Amino acid sequence: MKTIPLLRGLLAASVVAAIAGCTDRGAQAPQAQADAPAAVDAAEAQEPLKLDRVVMLMRHGVRPPTKAKVAPDGVADQPWPAWPVEFGQLTPHGFDAVERLGAWDIAQWRQRGLLASNGCPAAGDVEVAASSKPRTQDTARALVAGMWPGCAVDIAFPASPEADVEFHPLDAGAMPIDPDEALRAVQAMAPAGGMEAELRAQAPLFALLNQALGCEPGQACDISRMTPGIVRNEDDRPDVGDPFGLASTISQTFLLEYLEGKPMEEVAWGRLTPEQIGQLLEFHSLKFRYEGRAPYVAARAASPLATRMLAAMEGGPRLTVLVGHDTNIADLGGFLDLHWTVPGYPRDDPPPGGALGFEVLSDAKGQQFVRAFYRSQTMPQVRELQVLDASNPAAHEYLPIPGCAEPCSLERFGELVRGRLIAPLHAAAEATH
């Protein structure tokens, strides 16, 4: 992903000065297109854009695998490492990493005038919500602990998975979806030759995966011997199928072992470097490319969260944080065709603790604009629980919004989102706290 150059090509001097005044350290402002506002007087040209709101969707922090068996028996030649918490739960290390991220986030927003420079947040200034999964709720608590130590900040979440219409709309049966049309949409994303061609194209990655698993290529343990194909699911999105789905799970497990700070001899049994772990994460991105980026699927998977986020952008509190899953971020990225790259990760891969978000900014006349961003810790920052500061910032990147020429007005962004929304079959239940 190419970071957008600072102050490049803005047509109106007022917007040039405004964008320059509101960029935060290490991030660059978006270029403008031909729909920039007309010229204004010199006094207004000196006014920077004001940061009015931030709305972001964040992935939970570091967790163990979600189930006891990462892979079928015989795929790996060694037992999988033990973890300090139950399957799928946020680890203490993951909590600490997110807490550091929260301290970083609030420092940036305070510097830009979004939030009060000290003390607990004022009533109505902040909204934090999580999915029905405990790991997301604990991640929200960790983020809040980093932002406002000792303050009581309400965190809302669905009472049950069945009520989780926003974060798990397809699992909750809340969205209309034709499984055959969804299957055709996903199959159309495959290269010429179908998933067999995809399998051949990823042969070097499967070879590296076999190296980590202690598997001789061509043997029964070699998952690349599986017959590939997109899998149709009734009343749900298709999945990428094995071997790709299994390869994604295994590579994600290696990443989580590394981020947790396990000794390197326990991370992929000492057979991979951090760089090689990053290479294998291509399987994770590939899975989400097929499962979340077909427009037919993305619209149905992301509409409930996109609806909530747009409402927060147009009239919500100063800060809205929604804590969910990598699937949520991948779906929203597919819904809006947004792309990002966190250093050390493949393109469009959502790291633990990473967030896809939106800034709402206003000029001196009250006209509002939107900027999309992605922010995340890097792998070493999580593994080593590094303090984030001016000399060691979190990764942050502004993203072009296809279909919304820059500077992207909030009005146009709203039209773009509403034009893609699919109405749910039933609304979200009232959240618990």
Q: How would you summarize what this structure contains?
A:
This protein has 433 residues and is an alpha/beta fold. The chain is built from 14 helices and 8 strands. 36% of the residues lie in helices and 11% in strands.
SSE arrangement:
Layout: H1 13-22, H2 42-45, E1 50-59, H3 92-111, E2 126-130, H4 134-147, E3 155-156, H5 179-187, H6 194-201, H7 203-213, H8 244-259, H9 274-280, H10 282-292, H11 295-315, E4 319-324, H12 326-336, E5 355-362, E6 368-376, H13 379-383, E7 395-399, E8 408-409, H14 410-418
Parallel strand pairs: 1-4, 2-3, 2-4
Antiparallel strand pairs: 1-5, 5-6, 6-7, 6-8
Average pLDDT, all residues: 90
Q: What spatial form do the alpha-carbon principal axes imply?
A: globular
The number of helical segments is 14
What would you give as the CATH superfamily of the largest domain? Phosphoglycerate mutase-like
Q: What's the CATH architecture of the largest domain?
A: 3-Layer(aba) Sandwich
| Total separate domains | 2
H and E string: HHEHEHEHHHHHHHEHEEHEEH
Give the low-pLDDT segments: 1-45
The CATH class of the largest domain, by name, is Alpha Beta
**SS-derived structural category:** alpha/beta
Instruction: Report the CATH topology name of the largest domain.
Output: Rossmann fold
Rg from C-alpha positions? 22 Å
Characterize the largest beta sheet: strand count, sense, and whether it forms a barrel: 8 strands, mixed
Helix content: 25-40%
- Number of DSSP strand runs: 8
How much of the sequence is in beta strands?
Answer: 5-15%
User: Whole-Å distance between the termini?
Assistant: 38 Å
